[in-house]
Design brief:
The chain is α+β, with helices and mostly antiparallel strands. Helix content is about 30%, strand content about 40%.
Length: about 600
């Protein structure tokens, strides 16, 4: 009996190896050698449908993102094949040679194990302080005494609990977690009734993870959204809850008869609905005492500047009047400032121009009103002083700025003088002369009418509309034929659209707006491949792009350059650090797309 058990144990691994030989579960990395503070990608791919993926311990690295799950399915010669991938973006934090142990996944009641990966980390740039420690990742346990909120929760916080009407409030929306998030779906953002908001960080912007200690527990924390809120009314205003559906990996409490489940542990993906706290803010009304009569709700600190293009003009000559408000506060909510122009002036609706950005938890910049006014009568006029009042949050008092008055001298127009200057005696003569002139003109037209009808010009004018209609119809037919295939149109315009995104990326890079730079760069690259290669945006991945380019006989050098570009862009987008050479990455994108466009147009 003992001998049978020994034989069984000896041949059991061979049995399972034979059973699993049709499956492939492999690990690969974008770089086998990296420098400290450099990011790289690790991906685990299974050529089948699997479940209960168990990630390895990345204890020697910092997890920037993951697991990011993707799957694909295809039909080849009537048979279906499927694959699933789990990817991580890691950061090297210390020098040395490290081994990332295998990951595990379950396929048809069998547990497969990937290969391990060896990573060499050489000396590079110092690792930022927030990355010195790995994020503590746990696997939540389903126990009766614990709640999911012990592991993951949403929180809304503000920089103040009370404010005046019009005073800026910074609201931050964060997620705290001690477990790996497999998937998430934002179900509801807080209602902002009673506030006007300006987005400092949008929910779709890139998210950076940091660590915070809450009640003695270390959490991974990501800010999902940050807004400047400007209260529009007084009273207690409540920020509603944020709501998300999240899927996390939990250890199962179910007992299993599987030898592998007992040995490796049994896991399952569980979906939860989590809601944030509510937040109530007390909004104070602006004081009524000493409120200026023309106060229009401006709150902050502002300066007034009024300029006029000229003070001496002629009748019907336009004058530019510019009113500029500089400062910080609720500048985007200012009402129109209209000077008291004389009745003899025709006034056009103003053109409004904002140059505003967020700084020091408020809005800073300028708003300019540009009026065009035209004096219709000659004379001397006065444009009264322009006044602007605001409530100063520092002094809790109202301030008023008053401009100078402007004296306008309007001279009579010479041309208009000839028209309107005549005496009563001349009116009769003009009337008689007018009749004579009209009579003479009518005779001239009658005499020349028959001659004109026989000229080539007459026939040309008659035929021209029909010729133009025919040409327009032919052009329409040609354009419709050319554009009948939407993908053809997109393919022709792919490089043009990519160039637009990359131009925006260049501007963001010059302004050091890193998040917007990566967003524009990523859109430029992936929109090009989607439109040029006829790949739906939702299906884009490196394998499909490489396959499409190979079908068009692109060189191996160009394929490698494309692969490196996509990998570098994705890593930089998930974890932009100072070690990334953004200028070089942008030039690489321009060069690769240019070369691809040149080759693909010839293919």
């Amino acid at each position: 009996m003992v001998r049978k058990i020994i034989y069984t144990l000896l041949f059991l691994p061979l049995f399972f190896q034979a059973k699993a030989q049709n499956y492939s579960f492999t690990a690969k990395t974008s770089h086998t050698q990296v420098a400290t503070s450099q990011q790289f990608k690790v991906e685990y791919t299974l050529n089948a449908n699997g479940s209960q993926f168990t990630s390895p311990d990345f204890k020697d690295f910092r997890v920037l993102s993951g697991p990011n799950q993707s799957s694909s399915m295809s039909w080849v010669n009537g048979s279906m094949s499927a694959s699933i991938s789990y990817s991580y973006y890691l950061l090297a934090v210390k020098e040395g040679e490290f081994t990332i142990p295998p990951a595990k996944i379950k396929v048809n009641n069998e547990v497969l194990e990937s290969n391990s990966l060896k990573i060499t980390v050489i000396k590079g740039q110092p690792v930022p302080q927030q990355y010195q420690q790995n994020q503590p990742q746990e696997t939540a346990k389903k126990t009766d005494g614990e709640n999911i909120s012990d592991y993951i929760f949403l929180q809304i916080s503000t920089d103040k609990n009370s404010a005046y009407v019009g005073e800026p409030i910074v609201a931050s929306y964060k997620i705290y977690t001690r477990v790996n998030i497999v998937d998430n779906d934002l179900k509801k953002m807080p209602d902002l009734n009673g506030f006007w908001s300006y987005e400092l960080k949008d929910i779709n912007d890139q998210t950076a993870w940091q660590t915070e200690v809450v009640n003695g527990q270390r959490y991974n924390v990501a800010e999902l959204k940050r807004s400047l809120l400007f209260p529009q009314r007084s009273g207690n205003i409540e920020l509603d809850v944020m709501e998300m559906d999240i899927t996390i990996q939990q250890r199962s409490n179910k007992r299993s008869n599987s030898l592998f489940d007992q040995f490796f542990g049994s896991y399952e993906n569980i979906k939860y609905n989590i809601k944030s706290n509510k937040k109530t803010i007390k909004i104070l009304p602006l004081p009524e005492a000493n409120k200026p009569p023309l106060f229009n709700g401006a709150v902050g600190n502002f300066l007034l500047d009024v300029n006029i293009s000229k003070t001496k003009v002629k009748q019907d000559e336009a004058i530019d009047v510019k009113i500029k408000i500089n400062g910080s506060g609720n500048i985007k909510l200012l009402e129109n400032i209209k000077p008291d122009f004389p009745e003899e002036f025709e006034v056009y609706d103003p053109e409004m121009k904002d140059n505003v950005s967020a700084k020091n938890n408020t809005l800073t910049g300028s708003r300019e009103y540009h009026y065009i006014v035209i004096p219709r009568e000659a004379g001397n006029y006065t444009i009264p002083p322009v006044s602007f009042s605001y409530f100063d949050l520092n002094t809790k008092k109202y301030n008023t700025h008053v401009s100078d008055a402007f004296q306008i001298e309007v001279e009579k127009s010479d041309e208009k003088n000839n028209v309107v200057s005549f005496n009563a005696a001349n009116k009769k003569d003009i009337t008689i002369l007018d009749n004579d002139i009209r009579f003479i003109e009518q005779n001239i037209l009658l005499e020349n009418k028959n001659h004109f009808l026989s000229t080539p010009l007459y026939f040309t004018l008659i035929i021209s509309p029909f010729l133009l209609l025919l040409l327009a119809f032919l052009a329409y037919r040609k354009n419709a034929e050319r554009n009948k295939n939407t993908w053809d149109v997109k393919s022709r315009n792919a490089a043009k659209l990519a160039k637009k995104y990359l131009s925006n990326a260049t501007l963001y890079l010059q302004k050091n707006e890193t998040h917007l730079f990566y967003e524009a760069l990523s859109k430029g690259i992936f929109s090009y491949f989607s439109d040029k290669l006829n790949i739906p945006f939702s299906h884009l991945n490196l394998d499909i792009i490489s396959e499409k380019l190979s079908e068009k006989n692109m060189s191996s050098t160009l394929l490698t350059a494309t692969s490196e570009l996509i990998n570098d862009c994705e890593m930089a987008r998930f974890a932009p650090l100072s070690s990334v050479n953004n200028s070089a990455l942008l030039e690489k994108a321009k060069k690769t797309i240019y070369e691809l466009e040149e080759k693909l147009n010839k293919a």
